[in-house]
Amino acid sequence: MNELDLLTEYAEDEAHREIYEVAPEQEGARLDKFLSEVTELTRSAAVRLTEEGKVLVEVLQAGEWKPLAAGKNTKLPKNSRVTVTYPEPEDSEALPENIPLDIIYEDEDVLVVNKPSGMVVHPAPGNYTGTLVNALLYHCGNSLSGVGGVRRPGIVHRIDKDTSGLLVVAKHDVAHNALSAQLKTHTVSRVYYAICLGHIKEDGGTIDLPLGRNPNDRKKMATFPKGSVSEGKTGTAAIREAVTHYTVLERYPVGRKWGQSFTLVKCELETGRTHQIRVHMASQGHPLLGDPVYGGDNSHFGKTHPSLIHGQCLHAGELTFIHPRTGREVQFTCPLPDDFETLLTLLRKEADHA
After folding, report:
1. Which residue segment(s) compose the domain that 193 sits in?
2. What does 46-101 look like in DSSP terms, one character per residue?
3. Is 217 a catalytic site residue?
């Protein structure tokens, strides 16, 4: 797989141009080495982008950013920054695959499916087969909306690979546009269940922190201060409003066996940003159990039960929207996966002996 293709998976919903500030300890580093450290690029890919004119080096002089000639051997000066323009993703048509689907509801307009943990929603670099889209194409044939293009037919919204739960799929463009409009106006209700590390004292609350790409790691999202919202039209990555409402359902005190507390929470999204719940809860010091990206995969409890944990313990359990044909509100629920329930049973048993 081409190294540059890998990056399109992470940039597809964001501006394709990102700025990387040169830290004091990185001053004097070669440009290709710097880019290989702060992005997913290999050195050869960084050189190729530089030769194609996709990399801009600037230095701050008298309060203004001045461009410098950039080559692979360029050494980064003090008070400098590097702007990278990433290539646009290339669509490749997904093919039907006979993969079982857990269909919660289906009619001529929409389909609601319970996606298992471990399944990618649509083809992307590194995951061209075995996705939800491949399964939908086999089940629905040509009866899917074309708004998402050949890689994402019918897909109105997504959940992460290792997140399980409910997704609504559009069978034609009218339904797709109607559902997309509801997502934009925040009238679709999505409720998730998560196991968090630590003891959450409050019974509930709201996390209102904008989210954007982590400037030092393109695979991660990060929180930003209020007032930082920007759509990325000035050469910076987008930072978008993000609001999560959470309610504590159960607490599991520190047990003799695990040496750590855990909390089961219900989260309702007011917005639906990439990794939103995972980043928001981690920002409060309570990453999701099993989350390898935001610090939730280092608990003794998690290491003791690796067969039950397949990434972050997060399940999309409730979905409510206005049906695009009838105009009536419809609501769907699906139970927690068996492994998720088993984890809760183990935590409850340990909490009883705490």
Report:
1. 189-352
2. HHHHHHTT-EEEEEEETTEEEEE---TTPBP-TTEEEEEEPPPPPP----------
3. no
